[in-house]
Amino acid sequence: MNESMERIKAILADDHGVVRSGIKSLLESEGDIQVVAEADNGQEALQQVENLHPDIAILDIRMPVMNGLEASQKITQADENVKVLILSMHDDEEYILQSVECGAAGYLLKGSSKEEFLKAVRTVYTGERYFSADVSRVFVNNYLNRKPTAVTKPNADIQNTYELTKREKQILRLLFEGVGNKEIAEQLNKSIRTVETHRFNIMKKLGVNNVVELIKKIEEEQVLKDELYA
Prior knowledge:
Helix 1 links the parallel strand 1 (8-13) and strand 2. The chain has helices at 17-28, 42-52, 68-78, 93-101, 114-125, 137-144, 156-159, 166-176, 181-188, 192-206, 211-220, 222-228, and strands at residues 8-13, 33-39, 56-60, 83-88, 106-109, 130-131. With 230 residues, it is α/β, with parallel strands linked by helices. The chain contains 12 helices and 6 strands. 51% of the residues lie in helices and 13% in strands. The relative contact order is 0.10. It folds into 2 domains: 8-143, Rossmann fold, CATH 3.40.50; 156-228, Winged helix-like DNA-binding domain superfamily/Winged helix DNA-binding domain (Arc Repressor Mutant, subunit A, Orthogonal Bundle), CATH 1.10.10. The chain has a 6-stranded parallel sheet, sandwiched between helices. It is elongated, with a radius of gyration of 19 Å. It starts with 7 loop residues before the first strand and ends with a helix. Residues 157-222 form the HTH luxR-type domain. Keywords: DNA-binding, Phosphoprotein. Residues 9-125 form the Response regulatory domain. InterPro entries: CheY-like_superfamily, NreC/VraR/RcsB-like_REC, Sig_transdc_resp-reg_C-effctor, Sig_transdc_resp-reg_receiver, Tscrpt_reg_LuxR_C, WalR-like.
């Protein structure tokens, strides 16, 4: 590599040290990428971004203290020049949508090849979006290109007031009915952390800070309640 070439500065966040080490070795085996800092949770990654202003933040979606989705949202709000690439084991479309909503420029499955990983990093660095080959590109593009439209049908404003996904509506309905995270996870055959991630995104969309405010909002907004029980 030409020594004068500017390298891509990356911050890497994953709560598993062995995984971080492997990814770092992969990235730095390429002459144009430099890992300038590592973090084992989203909060630490946010602090590193604020201190170092890297080009890219590579975040595991599941981390303690602050997960990758929340970290992505805060990082892109703190520095719009930093591109976020989410790493995940989940090809669930809801996770992909949530990553986009939280400002991520890319979403890559952990089982991706070395070549695809490097391609994702370089693509995101150039300002373009990148989604793992196993992810539905059509689905994501439809979401990204979606524009608000005028109400053309009598009940159009009821159909999805807060842009909630089908899974989010399901979880929100259970929360409203007083079901706890553990029971929701068991009913949906999901992990508690997955339910917590959904709950975080639901609260963000509805503009509330806790379950009490969440329930109050549903009780006060009949349109929202109708949407949940449609």
